[in-house]
Amino acid sequence: MGRSTYEPPAGRTFLERPGWPEVLAGAAAYGASLLLVAVLLPLVTDPVVHGNVGLVVSGAMGLVALSVAVLIRIRGLAAFGFRRARPRHLLVGALLGLFAYVLGTIAAIVYMVATGGVQNVQESYQAAAAGGGLSLAFALVAGAVITPLGEEGFFRGVVANALLARYGAWVGVLASAGVFAVAHGINPIMPAAFVVGVLTAILFRWSGSVWPGVVLHGVNNATALLIPLIVELVAA
User: Fold this and answer.
1) Alpha carbon distance 136, 130 (integer Å)
2) Side-chain-facing half-sphere of 224: CA atoms under 13 Å
3) DSSP letter at 8?
4) 216: phi then psi, degrees, rounded to nearest 5
5) pLDDT by residue (tens digit) across 79-107?
6) Which residues of 75-104 are buried (b: 16+ CB within 10 A; e: fewer)?
7) Distance between CA 33 and CA 16 in Å, rounded?
8) Does pTM surpass 0.90?
9) How far apart are CA 64 and CA 151, in angstroms?
10) How far apart are CA 96 and CA 78, in angstroms?
């Protein structure tokens, strides 16, 4: 991996990038949110509503964790990668979003073959997308905007940011992607999440901004919501 283009904003130093205090505090907040969601989300029995709520809380958990990390000792969001990205970084992010979907789908299939089980853990999300025009629009906003914003803000802006600064490119990219993958559970989505985690961490290191990763993540999620609908329409 080549040299990073990341530079601290004017008047700041690399010492102001997030470290272990931010990572641990954010992880504690994320874990607490995850437990709360695990208890409350099953109470929503309608599959369409369940899917839409699940997409929203996926992003909300990341935003809560990011907010806690920011409040530890760093007040500015720029230190967490919320800075302007160049158009070419955003374009690469969009193209890699399509690549991530294809590669992630292959990785999920390999996982299912290797483990001998077929499990559609995104059934509720697909139900939300298939629940009519309004539900589809809501699912796309929640899944392709809110979820990427929250997850990129925490897993790249805090976790990958801190690991890249302290342990270098290989450890920073792979370890942060591993954490991101495990956060999605031990299921077929885990390898797909690892693919997204690796690509967005590389984009973050290259651009110094979370926005290209948000674009990649959003394109990947939107594609995952739309492809099953398109396949169903073609097959009908």
Assistant:
1) 6
2) 33
3) P
4) -55, -50
5) 999 999 999 999 999 999 999 999 999 99
6) eeebbbbbbebeeebbebbeebbeebbebb
7) 26
8) yes
9) 10
10) 24
